[in-house]
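Our preliminary data section would be incomplete without showing what the modeling component actually yields. Below, a chain of 407 amino acids is followed by its predicted structure, encoded as tokens that our downstream tools consume directly.
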Amino acid sequence: MPLTKEENQLLCRVETGSPMCDTMRENFWVPLTVSVKLVANGRPIPIRVFGENFVAFRAGDGRVGVFDEACPHRGASLLLARNEDNALRCIYHGWKYSVTGRCVEVPTEPRNPEAFCRTVPLKHYPAREAAGVVWAWFGSGPAKQFPDFEWTRVPANQVYATKQTMQCNWLQNVEAGMDSAHVSILHSSWMGQPGATPSYVTDDLAPIYDVDQLDGGFRYAAIRNMNTGNKYIRVSQFVMPWYCFIPPRDFPDGDRLVLMSTPVDDTHVTYWNVVYNPVKPLSPSYQVPAEDPDNFPPATVGGRENAWGQDRGAMARGHFTGFAHLNTEDFAVGESQGAIADRSKEWLNAGDRAVVEMRRLLLDLVKGTDTASGKIAAFPHDKIDYQTVRAYADVTPDASSWRRLVA
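Predicted structure:
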């Protein structure tokens, strides 16, 4: 069944004051930017999450600070601030805020400035780094458990994170990550090439899904018939609210992929592409894949007016979609669904089973939040063994073997 318009709004609206925003802020650490963008004593960078503007910066001693962008004095942007002495100093009147979020200097206050400093209400947020990603906690109370997946603990040469901004709602990106059926079609021109899924995903365009419910998410096997008579099994896993674990192309010990989707506002999302290997350094193709990991993979060029930069000449020469990067194909179809897709008009089939399951879980969670009364749904962090979450793939004559593979 398609979602109702009301359910679609409940899932998609993520700006301040919405039930989904409250649910996310009070339950989950939020990935903000790649660590390399923050230089010690360097320029503060803009961060936009949940429709609000923040700044992030790295102090001289290496610590990361995340503040509201507006100086609490008169609202000047702290993007303009001086980064000095492990603090930001607003250039308007010189008010200074330590990386820990305390006001430490108010040069324009003539009487007892130290006492006045203690009254300044700067909003700051706990931050931490893992896997080359800067995260923040935006909840009102003590931070909940950090999702210490295995990829957040591996050495630096075993993980690489990039991000890109898409012009559509966050949920459209999560859905693409949980949709194994589209891989055989949308990405068909890339199958079998270095860095892509093996070519036998195109042997069967209609995989059968087998789903296991888990605390905080689910895992599923997309089972395809191969021309050899074997089964190609891709086991993906979803952990709320935005973690999609994608199987390795070379199994059992190939590089794996994690997708994340940070809600920028109702109509924009930060797409995260985290490649990691739990047992060895990444393959050479992932060692230095981007000049700017903050702006990669390539974004779409334009929009509906020029078909998001699609190259019809390339299609005439045999390329299925006419896009020059596999991920740009996902960006184009996601943005083409509209700023916020209307899921009440969908006509779903069996190939959408994982997407439907993901929506149901998110709906069940957010329906536990009542913004008006202040009741917030609670996510079961304590029931999840984050270190065991992993995607798998296999070729086997026995389709039922996938549960033994992930046991």
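The chain is about 15% helix and 25% strand. The mean pLDDT is 95. Preliminary results of this kind motivate Aim 1 of the renewal.
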